[in-house]
What we know:
It is built from 13 helices and 15 strands. The chain has 2 domains: 123 residues, Enolase-like, domain 1; 228 residues, TIM Barrel (Alpha-Beta Barrel). The mean pLDDT is 97. The chain is an alpha/beta fold. β14 and β15 form a beta hairpin.
Amino acid sequence: MKITRIETIPVRIPLKPERRMISALGRHDVSDFLLVRVETADGREGWGEATVTPRWSGETCRGAQALIDDVLTPAVIGCPADDILELDRRLDAFAVGNWFAKSAIEMACWDIQGRAAGKPVYELLGGACRPLTIRSRFSLGAYDPARARRRAAELVAAGFTTIKVKVGVNPVEDVERVRIVREVIGPDIALTIDANGGWDVETAIRCIRELEVCQLTLVEQPIPPGDYTGLARVRRETGATILADESCFDLVHAQELIRHACCDAISLYPGKNGGIRKACEIATLAGEHGIACSIGSNLEWDIGTAAMAHFIVAMPNMHVELYPGDLLGPDYHEVSIARNPLDIQGPFTTLTAAPGLGIEVDRDVVERHRIA
C-alpha cells in the first residue's frame, strides 16, 4: 500500500445564514477548505480534509495546497499508507507546523487502511469504548442581544443541553450576552464560554468573576495561547474550570499546560493536532496526568468530522460526556461533500461502522464547488 499520488482539491462552501459564526477571530461566513485524495500502488484510495482558517492556525486553502503539492507529496511518495509513524516522521521532517495540511494526508491514510481491512478506523485504533452516537454542545456566536436571545431559545427547543457562547470581542457586550443566554435557557442547561484568546489576563479574571452568577461549567481559552503563566493565574484566581484549545497543537504544548497547571481539560481534534495518531498521543498523556480531553471544531465537513468521531469513539480519555464538544460542522454548511452524509439530528451525530472513515465523496458536488 505504498503512496503513489496525492490529489488536492480546493473547495468553497458557504455556511447556512443562521449558522454563520462571529467570534473574537472575526466572521466565518464561508469555508474554503482543501480536500485531499491519496492513491496507493495497489489501486486503493483514501480521503482527507484540511479545514484551514488563516486567523486560527495561520493556514490557507491555497497555501495548504501548495505545501502538499510541492513539499509534502514528494516527501511521502513511496511511504506505506499503513505506516503512520513513518508518514508523520516524513511530514514533520519537511515542514514545521501546518497541522491541518498534514492531518489531511494522515486521515486519508487511515481511510485507506480501514477500507483495505474492511474495518472502521475506530477498530484500527483499538475498538469502540463508547457508543457511535455522540451528543454535541452548540456554539452560539458573539451575536447582538436580540439575536443571542432568539438563537438561545431555538437551541433549547432543538434539544441542546450544553450551549457555548462566544466572547472575547468586547468585555461589556460579552458579559451582557452571556447573561442574556443564561436568562433564556434557565438554570438546568449547561452554559460555557469561549473567548478564542480574545481577552487579556486582567480582563479574563474580571469578566469571569462578573459571570459567576451565570454558573459557567467551562471557560475555554480565555487568553491568547502561549501564556501558560497567565492561563494558570486565571484558573487559580477565578476557580473556573478551564478548557485549553488554541494553547495545545502538539505534545510539547500539552506538556507545558500540565507543567504549569493551566487547565482542567484540553480540546483536541485531529486537524488541529496534525492527525489522528498525534491527537491520540496527546489524549493519552493528558489522561496520565488526570486531565480530561474533549473535541473541538473548525466547522469541518463530513470527512474531517468523521475522523473526529472515530477518534472520540476509540479514545477513553475523550470525555465528551463530561465536557461535550462539537461534531456539527457539516450541518453548518449549505451542501455536503458526501454522498452518504453523517447523520446529524439536533445535538446528536452518529458514526457508521462502514470501513475506513465511512464517507463516500460526491465528486459532482466537489467539482461544482471547486475554487477556480
